[in-house]
Specification:
Layout (H helix, E strand, L loop, with lengths): L6 E10 L2 E10 L2 E8 L7 E8 L4 H11 L9 E6 L4 H4 L1 E6 L13 E2 L30 E2 H13 L2 H6 L3 E6 L5 E7 L2 H14 L9 E4 L5 H9 L4 E4 L5 H10 L2 E7 L2 E6 L4 E2 L5
Parallel strand pairs: 3-6, 4-7, 8-15, 11-12, 12-13
Antiparallel strand pairs: 1-2, 3-4, 5-6, 9-10, 9-11, 13-14
Helix pairs in contact: 1-5, 5-6, 6-7
């Protein structure tokens, strides 16, 4: 799917100072995606989850979601990923066959529904939202300068074709320590954008992400922090605010969290040893 397929034109009445003008306005596409999983080749995939997402990079989204939810540990756990189908009923569907012998945790072997604003809906307890299996992080590495961080939002914004067209898509991006943009994905759901990034790296055999900085366009809520930590991100930066639960998770996992990264300013909430700052004159 091309970037243009991430939005559709909708007729609107634009009113400016009391004057009306009718014209088409591009709006972000949001459609349900059904995720089906089969433990092995001998069984048919069964519905596991439904999420609302912007179509595109669905293989990455599903692979990343399965990984950040702790259902798989590597790309070798994925025997087959089958996208969509020929008709409307199956177009928004991805079916996954897991490697032989791999079974889902019992508490996850049920269908549950998440949406674009809440990826932890349906979890049965607070403990269940803490995914186990975070990769270990190197203490104090990588180290980046404050000027490095303040340059990232503009670089991400410049690459957000979908947001430029609609103003309605979140983004997650990976930068190397030199500031080069390595990967960017957009979605109507901020957590889906992160899953697409993680899934792309998973399918490329490039996890964990210890040497890359992840930047997200919105808040650094708990689910974003959990997905980043699960992927081995050492520095998570957000243009918005973190939450208390995300900071507790980051402090426990060893991840640096930077918030309110905009207008040449930012806050460092956890593990500041990775950010090299100039002392005041």
């Amino acid at each position: 799917m091309s970037d243009s397929d991430a939005f559709e034109h909708w007729p609107v009445a634009l009113v400016v100072q009391g004057l009306r003008q009718d014209l088409p306005d591009p709006v972000a596409v949001e459609e349900p995606l059904e995720i089906r999983v089969a433990p092995d080749a001998g069984r048919d995939p069964q519905p596991l989850s439904v999420t609302l997402r912007t179509p595109g990079h669905d293989r990455e989204l599903v692979a990343g979601w399965l990984y950040t939810e702790g259902l798989i540990e590597s790309r070798e756990d994925l025997a087959e990923i089958i996208e969509g189908g020929p008709d409307e009923a199956t177009r928004n569907r991805v079916s996954v066959r897991l490697r032989a012998g791999l079974t889902l945790p019992e508490e996850m072997a049920r269908s549950f529904v998440s949406n674009a604003a809440c990826g932890v809906c349906g979890k049965s307890s607070v403990d269940s939202i803490f995914v186990k299996g975070f990769p270990s992080l190197r203490h104090g590495a990588p180290v980046v300068a404050g000027s490095f961080l303040t340059a990232l939002p503009a670089r991400m914004r410049h690459a957000q074709a979908g947001f430029s067209a609609t103003g309605g898509l979140h983004a997650a991006a990976l930068f190397d320590p030199g500031g080069t943009l390595g990967l960017l994905r957009e979605d109507v759901g901020r957590h889906n954008a992160v899953d697409k990034v993680v899934g792309a790296r998973l399918l490329a055999g490039a996890l964990p992400l210890r040497d890359e900085v992840m930047l997200v366009s919105g808040r650094a809520g708990f689910e974003i922090a959990q997905k980043a930590a699960r992927a081995g991100v050492a520095i998570l930066a957000a243009v918005g605010a973190p939450s208390s639960l995300s900071l507790r998770l980051a402090a426990r996992s060893g991840m640096t969290v930077v918030g309110f990264l905009r207008d040449e300013r930012f806050n460092v909430y956890t593990h500041p040893e990775r950010i090299a700052l100039e002392a005041p004159a």
